[in-house]
Structure formats: C-alpha cells, structure tokens
C-alpha cells in the first residue's frame, strides 16, 4: 500500500505523486485555497475607467479566482490548477483576467475548458493577435511568446484547467503599461473584438 498522502509532500523537490480535486461544477478545490482577484485590482485595465469607478461604489466584485498549488518552479515541473472567471462587464467590456506574458517568453501553456463560455485573447511582441473560443471540452494551446488573457463572454462562470512549465514565471508589467491591442465587448448583443483605445 502506498504511503498516505500528506499535504507537505508536494513542497519537496523532487515531488512525490499526489492528487488534487477540482470540482467540475464550480472549478474549486475542496482542499486548496484559491487566489482571488477583485475589480479594485484591475484598475486601468478596462477601456471604460468611469464604468469601473461606478461599479466600485460601495462594492468590490470578485472578477476571477484561481488555484496555484505552490509547485517548485523548476523546468522539469508542471504548474497546474483551475481558473474561474465570473460573468460580468465593465461598461460593455467582459470580465477577464489581467493577462500576462511568461517571463521565460517561449514557454507555452494549455487551457482546457470545463464550464462556461469565453475566449482566450492572445498577442505576441511582434503584434500578431489571436483569439480562440472556450466552450466545455475545448483545449486551447497558447504557444510560447503569446500573452494570454481569459475572457468570460457568457452568463455562467468560465472554468478552465491550465498547465504550464513551472519555471515560466508571470510578466504582468508589459500588459499593465501597454495594455492589449484588442478588447472584447458586447455590441448589439454580439461579442465583438475591437481595437483597444488605450493601447500604447
Ligand atoms: O495570471 P492572471 O493573468 O491574473 O490570470 C490568472 C491565471 O493565469 C495563470 O497564471 C496561468 O497562466 C493561472 O495561475 C491563473 O489561472
Ligand atoms: Fe500563463
């Protein structure tokens, strides 16, 4: 019989085999805490600053949460977890993650959609942009060099499971200063990709 699971095992390197449960209904783990990002942490990232300020009056909605398991950041390990982007809009722009490049730029990532509906918005430093659709069962491959942002275009939580090389790192600075070239908004009940008026 294998040794009983101990939570501490996963911090050792090399790792011992382990299992984590993520609910297929809401994406959350019953044993691992999630990291939460609230609208106040997304200031300046949406095109309509006024709409954000209005939404923030007396509240600070949860935009998304995700599980990071603390896997040691070495090139032989894989970081994985679930990400849940809640439905909502700032003005007419859909709720989304901050988005990031990987610090080791040429490292890829895979996202598998478990629930909800949305888009993966990508762009590389050369200015090539791409958008892929998330619906349950679809796996989206984010190649190296592409910044990636998950966007919920539906009425239910957008739940994805992600895997990437554990030492890839997160570069948020570039997106925070330059923004994305595109934004995703609702126009006449359609989901539309527009140029980002704030892009620098
Ligand atoms: O890191 P961001 O852009 O805030 O988005 C969070 C998601 O991206 C990841 O960093 C994976 O790339 C996850 O930890 C999380 O699901
Ligand atoms: Fe990533």
UniProtKB/TrEMBL annotation:
Its EC number is 5.3.1.9. InterPro entries: G6P_isomerase_prok, GPI/OXD, RmlC-like_jellyroll, RmlC_Cupin_sf. Gene3D superfamilies: Jelly Rolls. One of its GO terms (biological process) is glycolytic process. One of its GO terms (cellular component) is cytoplasm. Keywords: Gluconeogenesis, Glycolysis, Metal-binding. It catalyses: alpha-D-glucose 6-phosphate = beta-D-fructose 6-phosphate. Pathway: Carbohydrate degradation; glycolysis; D-glyceraldehyde 3-phosphate and glycerone phosphate from D-glucose: step 2/4. It comes from the Bacteria. It is an enzyme of class 5 (isomerase). SUPFAM superfamilies: RmlC-like cupins. GO terms for molecular function: glucose-6-phosphate isomerase activity; metal ion binding. Residues 38-191 form the Glucose-6-phosphate isomerase prokaryote domain. PANTHER family: CUPIN TYPE-2 DOMAIN-CONTAINING PROTEIN, OXALATE-BINDING PROTEIN. Belongs to the archaeal-type GPI family. This is glucose-6-phosphate isomerase.
């Amino acid at each position: 019989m294998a040794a009983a699971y101990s939570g501490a095992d996963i911090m050792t390197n090399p790792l011992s085999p382990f299992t984590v449960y993520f609910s297929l209904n809401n994406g959350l783990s019953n044993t691992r805490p999630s990291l939460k990002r609230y609208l106040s942490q997304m200031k300046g990232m949406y095109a309509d600053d006024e709409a954000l300020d209005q939404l923030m009056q007396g509240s600070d909605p949860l935009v998304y949460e995700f599980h990071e398991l603390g896997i040691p950041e070495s090139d032989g390990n894989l970081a994985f977890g679930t990400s849940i982007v809640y439905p909502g809009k700032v003005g007419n722009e859909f709720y989304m993650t901050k988005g990031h490049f990987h610090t080791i730029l040429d490292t890829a990532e895979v996202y598998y959609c478990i629930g909800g509906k949305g888009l993966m918005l990508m762009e590389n430093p050369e200015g090539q942009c791409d958008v892929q659709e998330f619906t349950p069962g679809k796996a989206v491959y984010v190649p190296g060099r592409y910044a990636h942002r998950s966007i919920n275009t539906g009425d239910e939580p957008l739940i994805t499971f992600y895997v990437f090389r554990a030492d890839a790192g997160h570069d948020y600075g570039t997106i925070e200063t330059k923004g994305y070239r595109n934004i995703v908004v609702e126009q006449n009940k359609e989901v539309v990709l527009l140029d980002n008026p704030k892009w620098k």
